[in-house]
Amino acid sequence: MVFSLGTEVVFLVVCLPFLAAALVRPVYGVLGERTGYAGAAVALVCFGLLLTQLGTEAAVSIPWIPALDVSLRLYVDGWALLFALLASGIGALVFTYSVGYMHGESGLVGYYGALLAFMGSILGVALSADLIALFLFWELTSVCSFLLIGHHTEEASSRYAARMAMVVTVGGGLFVLVGFLALFVVSGSALGTETFSLVAMLEEPEAMRAALREAGLFVPALFLVAVGAASKSAQVPLHFWLPNAMEAPTPVSAFLHSATMVKVGVYLVGRLRPLLESSEWMLLFATLGLATMTITAMLAVAATDIKELLAYSTASHLGLMIAGFGFTVPYGAEAGVFHLLNHALFKAPLFLVAGIVSHEVGTRRIDELGGLRHDLPVTALITAVAALGMAGFPPFNGFYSKELLFEAAYEVAHAAGGLAWLYPVVAVFASVFTVLYSLRFLALFFGARPDGLGTVHRPPLTLLVPPAVLAAVAALVGIDPQFAVDSFVGWAVEPTALEAHEMHAGLPTSLSPPVAMSVAAIGLGAVAYPFYAGVRDAVRTLASVRVLRPNWWYDAALAGLDSGSARLIPTIQNGLLRTSVTWMLAATSALALAGYAVAGVSIPAYDGVGVSLPIVLVLVVAVAVTIAVAVAPSHIAGVLTVSILGVMIAVFYVLASAPDLALTQLVVETLALLVFLLVLEEVPEFYGNIDRRVAFRDVGLSVVVGATVFLTVLLTTRTPPGGGESIARYFTEQAVPGGGGTNVVNVILVDFRGFDTLGEITVIAIAAVAVLVLMTVRDGGDAT
Amino acid sequence: MTAFVLATVLGILFAAGTFLLLRRDVLRIVWGVTVLSQAANVYLMTMGGIVEPSADGVPVLAGHGEHVPQTTDPLVQALVLTAIVISFAMTAFALVLTYRVYQEHSTLDTTTLEGEP
């Protein structure tokens, strides 16, 4: 394994936040509330280390599970670096902001720990080039998000929102896992060896696509990845968890639920774009993205709370990025990547502004706010830059990336014609709503100041500097977008692009159709703004229809699961042992048999007895004795026949070259017989009679279990395990030099696997103590 | 070599064990557990491959291990040995439990035992 010099620092970048998360408690003991600054320092170190990798494209890996070719493989390229830099950069600002915002709150150790772990996970997602590692980091971000949304554990709404986010995003993650496994399965025929390496797959996209199609897995894999990405990136109809996630403290909303975690889905879509690009890809993602963009933009207009407005708006912009990556024209990828950057630059400060407003004014209700520019002049300036970027007004940063989307939509429609013209139309329609809610947010700072508003404090510097930094960068991108493209964004687009294309961004010089689309969106938005209340009420009426609300479906599904379980449990667990046994064994057999049927196994042909005559004779006696046990008329007959069975098994061990087992078995059988006889003396001779109907059913189940076992034994012994020989051989060869004994089984028990034996002895000891206690505590256990 | 004979025997053993598990007499349930664990041990041995006894096949080395022959799988035997001892512990515990259940409730019939709080 050869490290290309310098790239291995990305391991440090991923590990550092986790390490810091583990150290939060002692650090908090020293620094107290200023722990946030330490977190910001960690984020800055990561940011700095990542900056050294600018312009690099390299992979580094350390083996993890070599037998499955799973390794912690990290990969640096423009797209990964853009995402990682955003995560660490905004992370640093959010940690700083948290110091001011979380002042006086409890549970800060958990808060900073989860935030740091989250940053490590998100950096892991950005830099992973191994599907398994990527999946693990992906799910880790969901877990951290769960912890952070539920920060106020004492509030029911927090717990509800945290659980909802967990169910939706982790559930979606499982879809992604299955999709990844599909990629893994076909990688064998496409690349020569089965691999989880994303880098290897991305090098041969055509071969991978052909192999996927041949296996009939292309559309399923595409669909599975889409479901996962949609759940994480809050696409319709899985968008409902995001507004609920606003229960989290505002810095968390800014960091996780606008700038980074929700973009993981978008990131994956961009990453897999060259691999899965096809007509199905475009149909799926362009439609999904534009539908989300429209529906959630409308819902943002209907919002009553500023964080709710921003949450829906985030989902809408994520839809824009997904749609951008969906369009398989060069402008598409450019729109997706550039908007990912721009959105982080304008949405994170808007969330931080929302935090300032709720912190300093005391309310987040849109109707109660207005005219805040007098009290919060700097905040108003930040909001103006960010909100106009969000609306897509030139010359603010959001304009350029949205213009790229319009160009992509127009180009696709122009080439395909027909129904494809819906793409640009819907894009403009959605943008009208974007303009509407952006202006509404901006209006919080303008117009008349409502009388009900109390005194408004000036925010401290820790609250003001982070959004100001982000808004300043956003403004710079807006002033000179071509500089941003040339220096960084163009390079970040490359890994997601399908063909080389010179990227341009700037103010339009002529009225091309896409420019006309922008003009139409801004114009219609401005014209419609005076009728905002009417539009809002219309959307609210529409959104209040129950079946149109995914949130209602979620609640109904959870309630249904609850009541369904409550009804089912008395049936399968009614307190009777035979009921539990019946369900468990029947289910196990059914699953095993169904598995064999699905795998299409064939029963091996009969190829002789396979064992010597003495063994056959012993086994015949064993079977006869076992049947005698099953139908034993009395306890004493049963105990004796069980004992004969044990002795027969001991003889079998002798004949199967296992003298140690035979000795042990004989000793154990003798002891067991003694215990049986002691107990028999004390209990009645009874219960042999069986109801005919019950017996019939029980025999039926027994036959099914027996048949399953028969089939399983046949299939599992057909070919001896490949790796089994080597370990057996290892123990035999090492017995004398490694363990100093010639009886290999004994050496394994007391030396090589000594801890297993310790466990075994512990079990015996526990059983002995339990027996002793049972025999000595005599009066029903309530002796006190 | 496919183990048809052993597969048949194991199928019958497991079927009989299941039948016993479904009885209402607690003592017969204990027999069922015993039969099932015996069967499971034999299954483990089968997985390792059955080799007829010979000086070289038994995993006990002659002399001081100068010559290491191709023996049967010693690891499976170690596993089964552990399993035998543990199943004895379990049987003993289950039997004492049976005895105490009878002392407390004067019955070993699971269907009447369940009714009590």
UniProtKB/TrEMBL annotation, chain A:
<dbReference type="GO" id="GO:0015297">
    <property type="term" value="F:antiporter activity"/>
</dbReference>
<feature type="transmembrane region" description="Helical">
    <location>
        <begin position="109"/>
        <end position="129"/>
    </location>
</feature>
<feature type="transmembrane region" description="Helical">
    <location>
        <begin position="636"/>
        <end position="656"/>
    </location>
</feature>
<feature type="domain" description="NADH-Ubiquinone oxidoreductase (complex I) chain 5 N-terminal">
    <location>
        <begin position="65"/>
        <end position="109"/>
    </location>
</feature>
<dbReference type="Pfam" id="PF20501">
    <property type="entry name" value="MbhE"/>
</dbReference>
<feature type="transmembrane region" description="Helical">
    <location>
        <begin position="165"/>
        <end position="191"/>
    </location>
</feature>
<feature type="transmembrane region" description="Helical">
    <location>
        <begin position="337"/>
        <end position="357"/>
    </location>
</feature>
<keyword id="KW-0560">Oxidoreductase</keyword>
<dbReference type="Pfam" id="PF13244">
    <property type="entry name" value="MbhD"/>
</dbReference>
<feature type="transmembrane region" description="Helical">
    <location>
        <begin position="609"/>
        <end position="629"/>
    </location>
</feature>
<dbReference type="GO" id="GO:0006811">
    <property type="term" value="P:monoatomic ion transport"/>
</dbReference>
<dbReference type="InterPro" id="IPR025383">
    <property type="entry name" value="MrpA_C/MbhD"/>
</dbReference>
<keyword id="KW-0050">Antiport</keyword>
<dbReference type="Pfam" id="PF00662">
    <property type="entry name" value="Proton_antipo_N"/>
</dbReference>
<keyword id="KW-1133">Transmembrane helix</keyword>
<keyword id="KW-0813">Transport</keyword>
<feature type="domain" description="NADH:quinone oxidoreductase/Mrp antiporter transmembrane">
    <location>
        <begin position="128"/>
        <end position="417"/>
    </location>
</feature>
<dbReference type="Pfam" id="PF00361">
    <property type="entry name" value="Proton_antipo_M"/>
</dbReference>
<dbReference type="InterPro" id="IPR001516">
    <property type="entry name" value="Proton_antipo_N"/>
</dbReference>
<keyword id="KW-1003">Cell membrane</keyword>
<feature type="transmembrane region" description="Helical">
    <location>
        <begin position="662"/>
        <end position="683"/>
    </location>
</feature>
<feature type="transmembrane region" description="Helical">
    <location>
        <begin position="6"/>
        <end position="24"/>
    </location>
</feature>
TrEMBL record, chain B:
<keyword id="KW-1133">Transmembrane helix</keyword>
<keyword id="KW-0812">Transmembrane</keyword>
<keyword id="KW-1003">Cell membrane</keyword>
<feature type="transmembrane region" description="Helical">
    <location>
        <begin position="29"/>
        <end position="51"/>
    </location>
</feature>
<feature type="transmembrane region" description="Helical">
    <location>
        <begin position="6"/>
        <end position="22"/>
    </location>
</feature>
<dbReference type="InterPro" id="IPR039428">
    <property type="entry name" value="NUOK/Mnh_C1-like"/>
</dbReference>
<protein>
    <submittedName>
        <fullName>Putative monovalent cation/H+ antiporter subunit C</fullName>
    </submittedName>
</protein>
<dbReference type="Pfam" id="PF00420">
    <property type="entry name" value="Oxidored_q2"/>
</dbReference>
<keyword id="KW-0472">Membrane</keyword>
<feature type="transmembrane region" description="Helical">
    <location>
        <begin position="75"/>
        <end position="97"/>
    </location>
</feature>
<dbReference type="InterPro" id="IPR050601">
    <property type="entry name" value="CPA3_antiporter_subunitC"/>
</dbReference>
<dbReference type="GO" id="GO:0005886">
    <property type="term" value="C:plasma membrane"/>
</dbReference>
